[in-house]
Amino acid sequence: MLLLAIDTSTTAITVGLHDGSSVVAEAATLDARAHAEHLAPNIRDVLASAGAEPGDVTDVVVGIGPGPFTGLRVGIVTGRTFAFALGLPVRGLTSLDAIAHEAWLGGRRGELVVATDARRKEVYAAAYVLGDDRADRVTEPAVSRAGDLPAETRGLPTAGRGPTLYAEALPHAVAPLDVSGGALADLAVRRLRETAPAPGGLQWVDPGHGFDGLEPLYLRRPDAAPAPPSTKSTLG
Question: What is the CATH number of domain 96-165?
């Protein structure tokens, strides 16, 4: 297999490739505004680094957020388009899960909060328990001001950029800051293995059985919206 993972939910426009055994290539660009400009070159770079062509990819996974509307949409649409062009399955994973998974891969255990930048002086946040076998999400992703999170939540180790932006409310910052394409790819391969119905087969699984579908987690309305229709006549 060769699984391509894409995430544009955080400051990192990130891509990873996993061959079923390990991450074989990863690229990331830190830019909170220019997702469309950086994503395609990053995909080309990881394929070139692995000595692979687009046709060698067998699976596509995209981070579905939560994240700001425009950047998040770029990653999901790109992943869908890439998969459609090659007739590949495409799946979605909650982006906050990838951050928790990377913390778990780094050896962290116990309770953890992931809080990423939601702009408007808010964070996207979810709580996790990192056990011996994996990181389990124990609350649904939500958007709020960092200081409005429950006190017991704010007192936990916190990954993501939330603590760097709101250190007073989230004083216990830990790595990582952003989603890693490699960590997202690794998480996807592990979930494929857990949910494959037959030994040795990394097969399509229905959303909800290890994966989260492809609907983006915006959690709030976009900043820009169409103007309401005018009630004034354009005649006379």
Answer: 3.30.420.200
